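Annotators were shown the component list below and the corresponding predicted structure, then asked to write short factual statements about the assembly.
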Amino acid sequence: MTVSQTSPGSHQPVLEIQDLTVKYRGDTRSTTAVDRVSFSIGTGEIFGLAGESGCGKSTIANAIMRLLRDPAEIAGGSIRFGGKDVLALGKEELRRFRWQDVAMVFQSAMNSLNPVMTIGDQIVDIYTTHAGYSRKESLRRAAELLELVRIDPARLKSYPHQLSGGMRQRAVIAMAVALKPSLLILDEPTTALDVVVQQEIMAQIKELQHQLGFSVLFITHDMSLMVELSHRMAVMYGGRIVETAKAKDIHAAPRHPYTQALMGAFPPLTGPRVPLTGLADGVKFSNIADLQEETPGHFVAPLPADQSAVLEGARS
Amino acid sequence: MTVHSKASESEVPALEVSGLVKDFHSGGLFSRTTVRALGGVDLSIGRGEIVALVGESGSGKSTLARCIARLEKPTAGKILLDGVNVLKRDRFQASKDYRAQLQMVFQDPFGSLNPVHRIGHFLTRSLALHGKAGNPAELRGRLDGLMTTVGLTPDMLNSYPHELSGGQRQRVAIARALAVEPEVILADEPTSMLDVSVRIGILNLLRGLRDRQGISMLYITHDLASARYLADRIAVMFAGELVEEGESLDLLANPAHPYTRLLVSAVPDPARTGSYDPSARAALRAAVMEPASCAYDGDPQQPCSATAPVRHQVGDPANRHWVRCHLYRPASAAAGNALATDALEDAHQDESRKAAVASA
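Structure shown to annotators:
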């Protein structure tokens, strides 16, 4: 299955994932965390990956960064970045690939800052180690970087604890884009933050994306946030993609019952109160079939007949 | 769906909090510092009414919940259940009577059920402690009834907590609260730790309990969308005090306090286009932190005051929508949250940008 929808920016894909399968191997049994997942992200495109805890979305992010450790292993498929085979990169190539080509911001990344180094020193570190700039040049660039995310450059001398959670997260995002990567992976970047700060961070990311033109893989379980930010998105369940389309199309007409349940979990803020239904406790989907194109650009995994019957029963 | 509460003005509210103050002390013998977490909160919940308390972390909403649940001792103020001041009645800790009137549902269904007991144990214990167990046949009937009420099957009584999903566990926690037939349920972020696809089911269950059994609820959340979905009224908390309160749909359609407007504008809503305007947001933040004017200035009925928390009525009185006068500043600014620091930062940035424009 190839997903070749039109995306803003160029049609040239930055990242192409084909039939990626990741397994966690145990002594007695192994679990398939990601099961034959394929998608691609175009230049300058924001691609959202939605799903609940345990659906495999973070495993995909870690697979792209080649951060998977035992007992996880990539059991099949390919990851190509700008034509390069990511899974075949050597040690030195991998070091360059991370941060320079692809950067990642983790869920509570703001807590990953070194507490005994100033923000400035931590940013300067990136430039001197990865780009080979002089300390003076690095400092100048570090100041620019902070301005980019609307933090006063005087904060270069601050320690992480002197910054609010939102500011720390913005600093981490600034550090992630320091080397102008072509892909930024955001794994639940605002989950640990308050709502007011959350949207400001997302707006910041959108603005940065506009200025620097990188592509984004945006991972979250918050469907409203995802629809607002992403161009295209995919919904994952049990290691498989159950639906993928333009974010606006999924918002307007979610087709898979799981997508509908996720959407229903976020009641609208305007209009009359309409009763919503979620997924009943204990409803599980199994043997998720390959995606089929239902309308142009809108791919959905068809439900086996017996499962749709169970679902109808659970709803009433 | 009815949105009107069954409470009328003349009735005694199911739960009423008045002038509740909570100070936390820290420091040693000579350097005592006090943080005022609650600065005189007045809130009432009518019979069969669901009121949502919303605010960001650090706003004091959980402290209020803990005071009402009698897990913290308030510094001052009254908590009235059925018109009786329970702080006077049970001076040191909550009595069994109090627990029979008010029950809690906590955020974490994984931590609130002891893993070594079967589901039946939790419910039987609640019933037995409050003398509602009866003979074995009656007990069996009550247990089955409770399970059915919360949408579980009676055969799950023999399950252990780890065999249930998060949503099912939260239903057990709700069944346990229901076992004592309370008048008020205090639900502190009951869905925030659940998988998103089952959250709405829990909200529907809570609403159903109100509709069928007339239980009053205080629903504490940071999620405005779910508050609007579930609650008849919403009260907004900022820095330990209520700043606005009103009928849910009206409050969110016409937010009057800058802090409420800030919260509303921060909710992602795909239906809204161009919902984020950085300069409007910065202006709102600045307005929350340093008020210059009040929109209700000049109203002879409710004159503004910088020293007393005047409540201005907003729109139709039927919506019971009021906003605290915006000129009023509490003496102790407990706004030790991210809003303050970030607002200053933004203001600084705006100045430096203006300077850059001027020099160019």
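Statements collected:
1. Chain A touches chain B through 50 residues (CB under 8 Å).
2. Chain A is about 35% helix and 25% strand.
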